Structures are given as C-alpha cells and as structure tokens.
Amino acid sequence: MKLPVYLGLLHKSEGTLAESFRQVSAGHGHEPDVHFLCQALAAQCDEHQKALQPIIERYGEVDDDDEPERLHAGGLQNTRSGPVGLLRDLQDLYLLASLVDITWTMIRQAAQGLKDKELLDVVTDCDGQTSTQLKWLQTRMKQAAPQALIVAR
Hints:
The protein is mostly helical. Helix content is 82%, strand content 0%. α1 (3-27) runs antiparallel to α4, α2 packs antiparallel against α5 and α4 (82-114) packs antiparallel against α5.
C-alpha cells in the first residue's frame, strides 16, 4: 500500500504551505488583507496537519519514496517586494496550495476505496478549506494583477 507515501507528502506539504503563508504575511505586512488572511490560512494548514495525526498513526507516513524529489515542493524562502513581488508570491502560494489540493483528492480516492469513514471526514473538512484557500488566492491575484502589470513601473 502506498497510502503512507501520500500521507507523508500531504503532511509535509501542509507544513510547507503554512510556513509559506506566514512568510508572505510577514513580507507583505503593508497589505492588511494579505497579512491577516495569510496568518489565518496558515493556522488552517496547522489544523490540517493535526487532523491527519490519527490517520498517520493508523496507516503510517513515509517521508521518502523512490522518487522523493518529485513528490515534494519547496516553500518560499523569502518574499519579493513591490506589486509584482506580491503577485509572484501569491502565485507561488497558489502552486503550493494546488499541490495540497490534488493530494487531498488522491487521498479521498484511497479513503473511498478503503471505505474509511474517519479518513473521508478528515478529507472532506480539510479539502474544502484548501479549495477556499485557492479561491482566495486566485481572487487576490486578479485584484493585484492590474496594479502590478499595468500601473507599476
């Protein structure tokens, strides 16, 4: 069974996403909505990791498999400055959140195959919040794009 590989990927990716949300919050503190929402979204990711703990205890967690470099994404090490920097940082968050989202989808498929109600409940709660994170990021990028791409010099 390879479910522990994807549980490890999800656990690590949620942590990476939380750290990256905090990095963007700190780096773009002059944008109040970005600052506070990124802090709230980071806390959601922390809660997702906690919700996974009983599942990981049951099925296990594998940190590396035969292709670990293809299964993990790095987080934001620092933030960029200015309007284009904000747009790029939000785009990086979107990519990380997309990885988390599709990984929840794969785990949902496994949970359905295993008929594991507890895992399905965790997936339903957490994946719904990840979808909302993606929607906010997309909306915020749409809002920032005209300023960053047309007005800013």
